[in-house]
Structure formats: C-alpha cells, structure tokens
Amino acid sequence: MFPDRSAHPTVEEAKFCQRMITAELIEQGNDGLSLRVTNENLFRTTDNEMLTWQLLENGKAIACGETVLTIGAEQSDTIVLPLTYTAKADAQYHLNTDIVLAKETPWAPAGHVIATEQFALTNTSSLMLPGNDTTIAPTRLQEGESVQVITADGAQQWAWNRQSGLMTAWSANGSSVIKEGPTDNFYRAPLDNDIGVSEVDNVDPMPGYAAGMRLALAAGSANVFNSMRSNGHIVCR
Hints:
By secondary structure, this protein is mainly beta. Helices cover 10% and strands 39% of the residues.
C-alpha cells in the first residue's frame, strides 16, 4: 500500500499469482472460442463463481456474456463461447475474462473479481495493403560542425552538433523552444563495492565513496555528486 492507503501495483501482481481459478484459451474456431477453466482449490467446488467475458475490437467491447461455473476441486472444464463476428482486416481482437463472485460473501461483495485473463486472438482476415506515403521528407542541411533538419513547411527546425551529438537548437514557427540542448544527467545509488563493509557507526575507510564523503564534510560541503579513486587519490566532483 502507498502512504495514502491506495493500492500498490504489486497488489495486482500478487492477486494474479495467487489466483485459484484460471482460464486458458485452447482453441479458436469458426464457431467460437474454447476455454479451459481450472479450479485449483483443494476442497471446494466453484459454487459461487461466474465467468464473464468481453470480446474487444481495437480496445472496444463488441460482445460480452457470462457463464456459471460448476467445477469440482482440482478439476478442469471446457467452456465454448459462441462468438459469431466478422473480423476486420485492420483490427486487433482480444478476449478478456473475469472470474467474479455470484453472491455476496463475508469478505467481498457480489461481482468482486477474483481472477482476470486476457488473450490475443488471431485475425484470419486478409491484411490491408499499405497506402502510398505522400509525406515530404524534411530538409537536411550541414554547415561545418552543425547539422540542421527543417520540416517541409518550415514550422519546425532542429540543430545538432556533429562532434558531441547534442541538440543545440530547436525552434517552432520562428520561436525558440529551448534555451540549450538536453545533456546526460545520470545518477546511481551507492553499491556494496562503493561503500565496502561500512556500517552506520563504523565507516569503512577504503572505498572511494566513504573517503570522498569525509573530504567533503571536512571542507564544509555535503553536496557530493560523485567520488572516485584516480591514481591512488580521491577526486570529488
């Protein structure tokens, strides 16, 4: 949980890994989809669970349904979903399945989702032929150590330094967008190799990180961005 008591994403991960009822797509035919639903509970039958499903076309539901589950402990059952739809050549199709509670229980209300799966379906329709790209390529100019790229309408312009590879200018509609190009700014947390065998009250004097911290604190500065050992000396930056 986060400090504001909202759910952390790992809650969903744990829920998925610990689900006791699973669904598996075993066949995709012309007359429907076949799912194998397995009850991994050791002693109880699925007497209060339903399978709800949605067929998605480019992320939008075009069909849905539900089926009551009656599967014995440690048993599997095959469920056929009678889907009849005409696949579009340029569309992507997915099947979402949820295992939900049919009735209220002491620990969750009716409709509570206890397991979720998503399956990518095969689109057997022919592929669409790509259209002709009529976009005009941007203009590339090179002057000395500078390279400029200008869009066909001249609205956007970029410039890079050929030696450093960094962006030096970017303008849109004649106005500058940035003052200077972005530069690398990496940070890495100290590792064991940096701090050695240091403890809270017992700092290892050997690693460069600890020695650099002592030098910085002795100089009255706590802003140590980097420290390394170079030719037997500690260099703080």
